[in-house]
Amino acid sequence: MVSATEQGAAIPPARPGILPLRLEGVSYAAQGQPLLHDVSLQVEPGSRTIILGPNGAGKTLLLRVCHGLLQPSSGTVRWLGPEGAAPRRYQAMVFQKPVLLRRSAAANVTYSLKLRGANGRDRERRVAEALHLVGLSDLAQRPAWVLSGGEQQRLALARAWAVRPEVLFLDEPTAHLDPAATRAIEEALAAIHRAGATVVMTTHDLNQARRLADQVVFMHRGRLLERRPAADFFTAPRTAEAQAFIRGELVW
User: Which of 32, 56, 140, 198 is the most exposed, having the fewest neighbouring CB atoms within 10 Å of its CB?
Assistant: First the structure.
């Protein structure tokens, strides 16, 4: 199983140009319960935007709205780049708990490329490159279901990166991983960012956000309370909720 945006579209050119992404007054409700409230923000090309906040803050909901998996109840989500009318081809998502095919590691990556229309020779090259990036080349023919949790998450990252998205969304990709597996994911993300991808990622891990973020979006109870450069946010958060969160206090 792959993200909805990995299905049925050809691999985009090297410089697709769907960014920036702009949300204006976005709200989301489920069964009459408001979960996101009037969120406005813009994601710029080349940035690493980390969405921070306590559990239940709305981080995953916001990520899914940005990715297009959920439609807002009100407000607008617009891709402003020249290819913004067809954004699905230029983005991919890695979920907190990867769902993999009962095939080899290589076959999982191959499958997403087939759905994008990659030809045989190009497909083989991209599979090899993606597995090498995440350190799974030696496990290419191993069934995905016997891989460790960290290896499975790296495989999900390889599958997403193989289609060369302009924007890579990640929903707490290291939430259940040990420090070694977390480091492997972060190193792969750094390489993907250097290769030109814009990264939008949720986490509740302050230290990880400090390591990775260019921009921080801080969420609390479905509201966007701060969007600032990471250095400014961690040095002098403006809201009482963010100050408490950075101090390690429980924020309700």
Answer: 32
Structure tokens, 58 = 């709305």
Residues 6+ apart with CB under 8 A from 234: 209, 210, 216, 246
Which residue shows structure tokens 């977390």? 182
Residue 252's nearest CA partner among 69, 54, 26 is: 54
Question: Which secondary structure element, helix H or strand E, spans residue 124, and what is its range?
Answer: helix 120-133
State the Cα angle at 163 between 157 and 168, rounded to 5°.
55
> Cis peptide before 20, with omega less than 30 degrees from 0?
yes
Using a 10 angstrom Cβ sphere, with 0-12 exposed, 13-18 middle and 19 or more buried, the burial of residue 186 is: middle
List residues bridging with 66 in a β-sheet: none
**Residues 57 and 208 sit within 8 Å (Cβ to Cβ):** no
Q: Position of tokens 């976005």?
A: 26
What beta strand segments (E) does 141-232 contain? 167-171, 198-202, 215-220, 223-229
Say how far apart CA 30 and CA 71 lie, in whole Å.
11
CA pair distance 221, 118, nearest whole angstrom: 42
Residues 6 or more apart whose Cβ sits within 8 Å of residue 194: none
CA 209/CA 230 separation, integer angstroms: 8
Gap between the Cα atoms of 82 and 18, Å rounded: 6
Provide mean pLDDT across the span 116-138.
90
pTM for the whole structure: 0.91
- Token pair recorded at residue 16: 């697709």
Name the percent of the chain lying above pLDDT 90. 79
